[in-house]
Amino acid sequence: MAKLFDTLAGRAQGADYFKIGDAEFYADPLTLLEWSELQAIPDIEHRDDSGKLIKAERDLPAWAEFMAEKLRLRVRNKFDPANVTSEWLLEHLPFSWINTLDYVLMYGRVPDAGKK
């Protein structure tokens, strides 16, 4: 029951945190409402001349704006939350870490590096 409450309230199970640039953030998970807002960000669809879907990809600017808003609430060190903008996030977050950030904010923990 406590785990369900933590999921609903968006509280981390431990003291996990992560860094992006000089900023440290608590790995507190998104609340269920926040997660549904994230999932509601539409993908950008690429279609051929006949209208057939070729590829759908994440709307990166919309995703970055959403994540920056949520990360401002999770600043752990003395980094000024006002500096966490979508532009700052896209500049400092390695492209390979985009899906990892989704994971961290879904589960409230940083994945174990090198663990299988």
Summarize the structure in words.
The chain has helices at residues 2-9, 32-39, 60-72, 86-92, 98-107; strands at residues 17-20, 23-26, 44-47, 53-57. It has five helices and four strands; from the N terminus they run αββαββααα. The radius of gyration is 16 Å and the shape is elongated. The chain has 116 residues and is α+β, with helices and mostly antiparallel strands. The chain starts with a helix and ends in a 9-residue tail after the last helix. It is 40% helix and 15% strand.
List keywords for this structure.
116 residues, alpha+beta, two-stranded antiparallel sheet, two-stranded antiparallel ribbon, 40% helix, 15% strand
The mean pLDDT is 83
Helix share, percent? 25-40%
Q: In terms of per-residue confidence, which ranges show pLDDT below 50 for 5 or more consecutive residues?
A: none
Largest sheet: 2 strands, antiparallel
User: How are the strands of the largest sheet arranged?
Assistant: 1-2
Tally of DSSP helical segments: 5
Order of helices and strands: HEEHEEHHH
Structural class: alpha+beta
CA(first)-CA(last) distance: 28 Å
Strand content: 5-15%
